[in-house]
Design brief:
single chain, Protocatechuate 3,4-Dioxygenase, subunit A, 1 helix, about 30% strand, disordered N terminus
Length: about 190
């Protein structure tokens, strides 16, 4: 798909349809293990703006909408869980002076979240990925990364883990992705 200029939208509206269309990743069973923790990396910035869309005027790249749930290890939705996302732009560059491609949000009362952004470019030595911190209210922070299946660089990236791959499908406006986080909530 060719690069295109994207315009931000007020609120993504595909979350419920996407969550129903794609299977949960990972599947949640009672006594499930929390989502695998991974390194934060060197580019985390505190105090990101609260927003569901990382798209801004002049944003370039292929649009992707990531949706899913934050669940406890006993498969219950975690209401108001904090999710903080950051990523490289479509050219593989991180904004280290501002908040482009950075933002946080809170899951709704059913534990659902939706993030509208672009597919990140390749960062030197890494495969495509999103960084995320997830925290159930008053619980420890889970720091991890999410990956794209089928990427050539997955094989050579020493951090990549297949259990952190998002379920992805193409859509008329870009890509739709799903991932359910499992966190310690009790």
């Amino acid at each position: 798909m060719a690069l295109q200029v994207l315009t931000p939208t007020a609120a993504p509206t595909v979350a419920p349809a996407l969550v129903q269309a794609l299977p949960p990743t990972p599947a949640c069973d009672d006594d499930d293990e929390p989502t695998l923790a991974q390194t934060e990396g060197p580019y985390f910035t505190r105090n990101s703006p609260e927003r569901m869309s990382l798209l801004e005027a002049g944003t370039r790249g292929e649009k992707i909408v990531l949706s899913g749930y934050v669940l406890s290890t006993d498969c219950r939705p975690v209401a108001r869980a904090l999710l903080d996302f950051w990523q490289a732009d479509d050219a593989g560059q991180y904004d280290n002076s501002g908040f482009r491609y950075r933002g946080h949000q809170f899951a709704d009362e059913q534990g659902r979240y939706t993030l509208e952004t672009v597919v990140p470019g390749l960062y030197p030595g890494r495969t495509r990925h999103f960084h995320v911190k997830v925290q159930a209210p008053n619980r420890p922070v889970l720091t991890t990364q999410l990956y794209f299946s089928g990427e050539a660089r997955n094989r050579s990236d020493g951090i990549y883990r297949p259990e952190l791959e998002m379920q992805i499908r193409d859509d008329a406006t870009g890509k739709l992705a799903a991932f359910n986080f499992v966190v310690t909530a009790a």
